[in-house]
Amino acid sequence: MSNLKDTLQTLSIEGLWKNNPALVQLLGLCPLLAVTATFINGLGLGLATLFVLVGANVTVSVVRQWVPNDIRIPVFVMIIAAYVTVIELLMNAFTYNLYLALGIFIPLIVTNCAIIGRAEAYASKQPPHLAAYDGFVMGLGFALVLMLLGGMREIFGAGTLFAGADRLFGDIASDWTIVVFQTDNPFLLAILPPGAFIGMGLIIALKNYIDSVYKSRVESESITKVERARVTAES
Amino acid sequence: MMKLRVSSSPHQRITRDTGAVMRLVMYAAIPGLLAQAWFFGWGVLIQLVLAITICVASEALILTVRKKPVYFALTDYSAVLTGWLIAVSIPPLLPWWMTFIGCAFAIIVAKQLYGGLGFNLFNPAMVGYVVLLISFPAAMTQWTPTTSQNMIQPDFADALHIIFTGFTVSGHDIEQLRFTVDGTTSATPLDYVKTALTQGNTYSESLAHSTFSGGFFDAAGAGWGWVSLAYLAGGLVLLQQRVISWHIPMSLLGGVFVTSLILHMTNGDIFGSPLFHLLNGAVMIGAFFIATDPVSASTTPKGRIIFGAAIGFWVVIIRVFGGYPDALAFSVLILNMAVPLIDYYTQPRTYGHRAKRQSVEQK
Question: Where does the protein end up (chain A) (predicted)?
């Protein structure tokens, strides 16, 4: 059991931080950059991607014994496309306004390399429960970056947060919008595509900075340990 | 009589450091600055002080964070020059916080994040300007009419007030200040002609508007023509002092001239004359003061000619067919991207070596 727990922990760290699909693998950048003009759009696409990622990973893992190696990519793509169709119809039915706002980027989840990347690299070699968990943390890591970037661009660009929450959560959320500052001149750069690239670059830089600080701290700790060991050896 | 020195190499001595060059560029820009202040009021000078302060402060801040020598980098005056160029590019009564965003972005992102002076791929001042232009398109095209045509004459206190609060001392806002004596809202010459053309007027009809009265040529907007000439004069001083080489300014002006001449000859009713394109907007200051930035421009003689001519070409093309009235900043940034390619293919032949292509063929 402890073995399983270790595996799950490794998977979590990999998906959320060390091998984050958006920040480290830089996969699925097209939807990431295109729809993150607001927090809610990012959250919506993040949830849709999470759903597809979990579903596709489980299915690929279940059928992995019967899929011939030569045609595995077409098979994976068809499995992913099936889940994307499901989520597209669901969003069309239940969150119609969000469906309109995300537009072409819902069907384009099929081409999100993060999903086929996980199917190929992990799900096609692992049992379903591990594949499902991997899909979940990878999707969560992707969705968190989408939300972070969306929130950043929304605050800097329009001065609001959670605008259009009713698109995702229904009428109950219509007054969730937080106005951070009021402006007649929205900072269009943040809302337009260049803002996505710049914001993404800043987030990656921040992650690398945190990593380097963490690494130097770990190194300084390990150096002190070495000194102690030497003392014990002498005595 | 030239004094001949006999000594070992190097024989070429640097007589000016970076700071001296940057200061010379600024001295040469003073006539243009004064002309702008004369025609567009105190706002120009207030923006100058504001922009330079923000640029120098941002530079000092980032240098401190990067643990680089602050005093050394600040005394090369490059941040001051960046602030200066942004200040004369933006509308004189732009709200202070927009100037702040533009200057901070130029120094922090376009210059220091790329590694500081000498490492920036793009001209920092133009990056700052473009960030403002695409972020606040309305505010960035709100130029007031030249002071002789202004219905309300803002004095120093008015200009200071409107930049920092949005209203003059007597309570006018920027829209009211833009009214000319004949009661219409003013626009820059380039903007005016662009709008007039979309409304079905011909080019020569649009020149009859008061925006163009008082210029020394039919095509030069009131005030704008004189500002351009003042920058031309300053630019010629820079050439004479050998701060810049002739390649970029001359090929840029040539590119503008040839492209607009061809268009004007194909259809003089919808395409402005070469004089119209040369004397309005940012072409003159761009040719001598902006495109010649030694860091982000091409470095080979042949490459500089290509660089300048292509900027001139794109200025006219974007002005005529694009969505924005002026295009110098966009053109400079486009060509900044092409500089590595241009430099690669225009390497001059080293003395004593054959040209690259010949030696390859012989092998």
Answer: Cell inner membrane; Endomembrane system
